[in-house]
Amino acid sequence: MPDSHPAEHLPHEAGAPLPYPWPRLPLAQSMWRGALNRCPICGEGKVFKGFLRVVDRCEVCQAPLGRLRADDAPPYFTIFLVGHLLVPPIFWLERAQEPPFWFYLLVGLPLFAILTTLLLRPVKGATVGLMVRLGLEG
Q1: What residues contact 67, with CB distance under 8 A and at least 6 apart?
Q2: What does pTM read for this prediction?
Q3: How confident is the model at residue 136 (pLDDT cuts 50, 70, 90)?
């Protein structure tokens, strides 16, 4: 069995370190693939089987992506990103126009919720790509 092909993972025990027989890609490429819901290793399989549930194994290269536990990192990164995108315009609007409070309830709150929901999946995929690149596992 050739050990240079990523599709051929050797079986390992549950507590054993994750074997990495595949080549390590550049960080940006691995994260970009994950953000696009593509396997960070082969770029062909999918990362998610639901909205945010990571597949157990890539259907193409059989990489054990299910062992990667992103946990609270993706929501934290998403909130950080959305906050940095929306808070400066809100501060500018408050200073320039002084809109009433109901404006923030009708426009600002839904905008935050929608943008956070739209960005959470790509951010989690990028986090999985980062974890693959760094060799982290749960």
Answers
A1: 18, 137, 138
A2: 0.80
A3: confident
